[in-house]
Amino acid sequence: MKRNIDYTLYLVTDRKLMSTEKLEDAVEQAILGGCTLVQVREKNCSSIEFFEIAKSIKDITDKYNIPLIINDRIDIALAVDAAGVHIGQDDIPTRVARKLIGKNKILGISASNYDEAIKAYKDGADYLGIGAMFATDTKKNVKLTSINELGAIIKDIPIPIVVIGGINEDTIRNFKNLAIDGFAVVSAVISKSDIKAAAEKLKNEIKKVIKK
Q: Is 3 within the bounds of a domain?
């Protein structure tokens, strides 16, 4: 059965940016600080290494009853029985991904504009990751999504919308008048010396924007 997901503070991992020696410690501190969802993103490792990382992180997320999403790799998501998978525009098509993971897993799709968002919704996405909203060091040379386009997406698409790209305690306030479901963060949490405190601070800022 598909889980009811809280997208409020969505941690996306990056081992190159983390302030801790072990990813498990970074993820646990982020969860203790208030992260409600975790995505493991690994772009430069072998399949077996990714599998072992995902399995280890799932032990942490299961401990706190936090859903785990795997970036790109449907095989890894299924192998560790993650809550779902998140894919981009250059990955396997949304409809194919949905067939592979079944109806009970969460399927997230990245979209940078209205047309991509509409297509992803129609093809079976459970939520959308919209952005990059602001310039970020984690992804180079990306086209930014305007606040106006984001507003159009929110208006016309009835599934949860998570914004990503340059999200931090200063930029969160830009979304105050928009019905955002969540904020995906990377360096704003995982690179801080006190990850737990960073997550807590972001969660407090989000509470001023999202009314639940």
A: no
